[in-house]
Specification:
By secondary structure, the protein is of the alpha/beta class. It is 51% helix and 12% strand. Strands 1-2-4-3 form a 4-stranded mixed beta sheet, with helices on one face. Strand 3 (93-96) and strand 4 form a beta hairpin. The protein is globular. The two termini are 24 Å apart.
Length: 181
């Protein structure tokens, strides 16, 4: 069974902050909601072991159902494990191929939405190659991920999932992913 391995290390946080700062212009240009560090060295504030342990424990409650549903999607490439860095910075979630995701756990809103964020970012990883082969742009990738959650059994795991306003769905492509025949 695939698994998500949660961690927060200063080394990974420093690398992640450096990556975020390189993307600062894009975040500002698109008015994307993000918490950015002032500089690469702003890693002193750790998420804390108790928050990471809480996240791991709570995710384990839905992990099997999540991956059982995801395995039913056509074209999904499910790996044996995924690494999840828990951070104070960044957007709510972010991913890096082949198996790395990042989630922000900074505010109460982040805490309320963190499982939806993990599920969302994992789908990006599962479909990254397929979406790339179909040349989906950013709004289409986001729309497809939202639709996969909202139109599958994943909606039962994430009943409060909020669809993004930016998303655009390719109906034929969505049908090909969800078609069980």
């Amino acid at each position: 069974m695939p698994a998500v391995i949660f961690s927060h290390t200063k080394k990974q946080e420093k690398e992640y902050c450096a990556e975020l700062l390189k993307e600062k212009a894009w975040f500002e240009r698109t008015n994307f909601p993000v918490f950015l560090p002032q500089n690469e060295n702003e890693v002193g504030k750790e998420v804390g072991k108790e928050k990471s342990m809480w996240l791991k424990k709570e995710w384990k409650k839905i992990e099997r159902d999540y991956f059982n549903t995801a395995k039913n999607f056509k074209h999904a490439q499910v790996l044996s494990n995924y690494k999840c860095h828990v951070s104070h910075f960044g957007p709510e979630g972010k991913y890096k191929r082949p198996n790395m995701l990042f989630v922000r756990l900074r505010t109460e809103k982040d805490k309320k939405r963190v499982f939806e964020t993990i599920g969302h970012e994992l789908l990006h990883l599962l479909f990254a190659d397929f979406f790339e082969s179909k040349k989906l742009n950013y709004p289409e990738r986001e729309g497809m991920i939202d639709a996969l959650i909202l139109e599958s059994d994943l909606k039962n795991l994430f009943p409060k999932y909020e669809q993004q306003t930016i998303g655009k769905v390719r109906p034929g492509l969505l049908k090909s992913i969800m078609d069980k025949s």
